[in-house]
């Protein structure tokens, strides 16, 4: 959205007009400034002139000789435009003036007649794009500097408004934000709420109050549709809107100024002068103002007459009731529409209008009478006419203000900084909230802020005015310094995968149904029943993904098309599965896929990857997280029937690993065998460490050697020693294995060094004699080993 600084100044007196400072303030308020354009006066030496006489050129049929008064006497200039007559007020470029683009104006002979200067058009002056003739002015005295009449210089900000801030989708809304920040008053829009003479025949019937909570209509008779004055055309162009006519321009002007979309109908083209707000009938058609014939959906909310549809509610009007040069009676519609319905209808018909951008965010339901009065005032001033009767205001369900309790400590709890109650109340009051009570404060939310419904929202409002830079950065206290187990798992998994040579990738949560079903070969697999998005960006991204692997396979395909033959990718992400509740199940998955040779030295010819590499990756993952698992070989959808296995944890399948089915690889256009795996990260357990205070007492170290059967495992010996050593055994290390004389054939000697330590006192040899005896007897009893002298 574009907003003009000159326009803002009509509502607020800013203490600064420095572009950088204003950009900083708007960004801090959550209104991102994407750019700022400085508009300068593109001409010099142009004055206002009156046309006193016009006569034919003696040597040409298509140009005329025009006598003008520029305040210094009459001059006759040659002009080729025919869109004016005697008495017109024009812009005269004097001799020596400079027009837009650097064109210097002098005296020229045109078909034998000397022309001192020229009468200029909008295009030549650089202030518009109307090429139908010279610029006609509605005011100005001869000799007046024309530069003083144009709304320049100006500064136009390009701002990005978040979807939750409908109040900022207008000049007045942004002025209100700046006034709150600088703690200066904001001026309201001046409107005339007077009732017109007579009684209007306009009737309004709302058949769908859920889709249209409020509808207002006002009749203006005797209007004269013509071009808008220069100031309005310039202001609209500055914010990116093309001027059309005075009546239509007023509707766009009020929309930008107040954030309330509105529409003007030619009342003589509205059958029975009756407006009906309803849902479209199946197959009903409408030709919108852009000239496109559209077949409507029964979910579309429409503005209709008893005879048919007049427009798509909140989106675009129809051509059958369009305001034109012959219009003399106007019906000004200002309504409030339910946001989601406008959003979906706009997407359904591929119509992204300025009205949609505002209604889909949620327009203030209390705004229609104000916007109607403002538009009526402007139309009667610019197009003439008189108001007929009073405002028709159908409002089935009145707006009920939202009240939120805000405990004073909640601000400090969320922001980490203490702010006095008086300051909090002041911030909220400046933003239009009504604050009452002590603690908790009872805050009444203004109707133009539908995004505020809970204490955290109010705390954010306080933070915006207090300034995020004013909140000191400090480490949180009282958390114990431990990461959540889910984050421990994510970090461990990511570290392990990267260490194994895989590259992390991020794919879209959205997918096409063909990609999902190309991988899910089993029609009974519930993952093939993906959830369709109500408003997809495209059919290729119309479903929520049920598996991460199609995205990785597409990534491998992209790499192979760029002549990369060895690819290993992984992703940690969420999938979306149907559930019995309102929201889908959203398990967090790990998926990996690889193709080509195993990574090795540049000179080393390594083997191609196979299913064992994927299984090795599973083994590495579970080992790094100290979680036990089993593999159960069985058919797995999307995988080779003989080269895949289910990954089991605690008797439950948490994933699959193996080689991707050849038909799947072929569908994705992949070369070679593709090894892959996908796991629910809930099957992992994070590695946990517990701090044990070290003992301050010296250790007791001694060695034991056992004469054992040659087939006895050293690991079994160490296990017996650790069990027999008790809590005071700090370390048991195997340091020697010997076979041969004097040992008998089939026997070997295994020597172990033991370290004992007590946390409360120094151990003695006598303390450890019972322990030594227990170890020796257990080894002899369970393993058949005999203690040797060392």
Pick out its properties.
single chain; 790 residues; alpha+beta; Phenylalanyl-tRNA Synthetase, Chain B, domain 1; OB fold (Dihydrolipoamide Acetyltransferase, E2P); Phenylalanyl-tRNA Synthetase, Chain B, domain 3; 7-stranded mixed β-sheet; 6-stranded antiparallel β-sheet; 19 helices; 38 strands; 25% helix; elongated
Low-confidence stretches: none
Strand content: 25-35%
Quaternary organisation: single chain
For the record, the count of structural domains works out to: 6
CATH architecture of the largest domain: 2-Layer Sandwich
Major beta sheet summary: 7 strands, mixed
Radius of gyration: 40 Å
Could you name the CATH class of the largest domain? Answer: Alpha Beta
The shape, in one word, is elongated
* Strand-pairing-aware structural class: alpha+beta
Largest sheet strand order: 26-29-30-34-33-32-31
Helix content class: 25-40%
Distance between the termini: 87 Å
CATH-assigned homologous superfamily of the largest domain: Bira Bifunctional Protein, Domain 2
| Number of helical regions | 19
The total strand number stands at: 38
Q: Write down the CATH topology of the largest domain.
A: BirA Bifunctional Protein, domain 2
**Overall mean pLDDT:** 91
